[in-house]
Write a structure and sequence with these properties.
This protein is of the alpha/beta class. 23% of the residues lie in helices and 24% in strands. Strand 2 and strand 3 form a beta hairpin.
């Protein structure tokens, strides 16, 4: 579906008292949590430790529940399979995935956690509001990103867009600034971080997608309902002054 420096640092969320005893979980094993490698939102550092905005949030919440947990990064298809088979407790990812609806309980996070995808350009470059209208233009994208399904269309050779693939946010941004490409499809937060290294660069961006995220709990683990309810209460407590979407796929 967030910085997120690689070094340890104080929690970025306000501390809160432990929840009352009836909200704590009594588990026989650690909670298995998975995410995709999607820096700076969720990622594994060089020491093999999970980091990122979503990771920091759920760590703090599970610490309040006084439970053990472990993280693992996996490709999206693998995560979906694990949720459906009961091998995975929680997925940190986008909500509203159709083939997960009946298999999971979802706890939406506030709008401020949404992942915003934009089309970036230099001043003087024509504003094109839709990615697939970039026929004849050079577009930088980052290897391994699905772009909310847009990658399927971009991989179609009939679109007439000249695709240039980059290895990461920094390389893609340098391509745009140096005029090697005319447009860049990338997420707002990582580009904003990288732009701090290019103080003289001036870029414009057109919003393309707003990807809403959630804590996604498998229905097929023995403690599913208890975990869902405990996390839901903690999310509501954390963001008591923030509008939170109604929980999706709530248990009966």
């Amino acid at each position: 579906m967030l910085p997120f420096g690689l070094e340890a640092r104080p929690a970025i969320f306000p501390s809160e008292p432990l929840p009352p005893p009836h909200t704590r979980l009594q588990l026989e094993r650690p909670i298995n949590i998975s995410y995709t490698e999607f820096p700076p939102y969720t990622y594994t550092d060089s020491q093999g430790v999970a980091h990122g905005y979503f990771v920091d949030l759920i760590k703090q919440m599970l610490d309040q529940l006084q439970v053990n947990y472990r993280f693992a990064a996996n490709p999206t298809p693998r995560i979906h399979y694990q949720l459906k088979s009961g091998e995975l407790d929680v997925y940190l990812g986008p909500r509203g995935v159709p083939n997960l609806a009946k298999h999971t309980r979802m706890i939406p996070l506030p709008e401020s956690f949404s992942i915003k995808l934009s089309l970036w350009r230099r001043p003087g470059t024509r504003n094109i509001p839709e990615v697939m209208a970039l026929q004849g233009q050079n577009l930088a994208i980052i290897n391994g990103f699905g772009y909310g399904g847009l990658i399927t269309q971009l991989n179609n050779n009939d679109h007439g867009i000249h695709i240039i693939r980059a290895s990461g946010h920094d390389t893609a941004l340098k391509m745009l600034i140096s005029r090697r490409v005319d447009y860049l499809l990338d997420y707002q937060r990582p580009v904003s971080i990288e732009l701090k290294k290019h103080l003289n660069a001036e870029l414009l961006h057109q919003p393309i997608q707003n990807i809403h995220v959630a804590f996604i709990v498998s229905r097929y683990v023995p403690h599913s309902k208890a975990l869902y309810e405990a996390l839901l209460r903690l999310v509501e407590s954390h963001f008591s002054n923030t509008a939170i979407p109604a929980a999706l796929n709530s248990p009966p």
